[in-house]
Amino acid sequence: MRPTTRRRLGLSSILALAIGLPGLVAQPASADVAAPMTISVDKASATPGSTVTITMTFTNDQQTNTQFVYQSIQPTWNTTQDPGLKYTFKSCTGEAVQCDVNGTSGTVRYNVPVIPGATRTVKLTYDIAADSACGPSRRIDFYSYVYYEFQGGQAKKDGVYNTGTDVACKTPEQPTAPTAKAPAKALAKRH
Which backbone phi and psi does 13 adopt, to 5 degrees? Predict the structure, then answer.
């Protein structure tokens, strides 16, 4: 092999290596994009007669303002098929222009615009009736549909999110044992 050919091959190899190396170097991880909706309940398990609060937070996961956000919350099919479960929404508050509850469901329209990365939160509260059924496999579950528009209304996204609470029976109160009184000490009189 002639020296000129080796030089050309060597230069070509160095050039290929220089072009290929950046692809081999680990790229910095980008920050995780927040989910557009998070839903939580303040009690994983509640008893008849208690109150449960659902917190729903919308996060704009887009690069442009979100200018319309609608959300509904409904009981799941399993919840509606259990005639013994009794509950009623009593309030809906938070960062919304509309936050309505009606018996067993609700609707929300969040304050807009929502800038990229910003959030809006609402809280829905419901009461579990004192005479509601309870026990193993008894749950009040909800699904929530979220729809939002961004890019000046040219793009849209939606999704379904779930949450729920077990309805546990109250445990019978144990009678408290009477407290033992300390024996009275007789005072001896000195004569």
Answer: -65, -45
Cα 8 to the center of its chain, rounded Å: 61
**Closest of 54, 86, 84, 81 to residue 163, by C-alpha:** 54
pLDDT in tens, 136-189: 989 999 999 999 999 988 899 999 999 999 999 988 765 555 555 555 454 445
pTM (2 decimals)? 0.72
**What values do phi and psi take at 119, rounded to 5?**
-125, 160
- Parallel/antiparallel/unpaired status of strands 45-46 and 155-167: parallel
Q: Rounded distance, CA 75 to CA 103, Å? A: 11
Torsion of CA 31, 32, 35, 40, to 10 degrees: -100
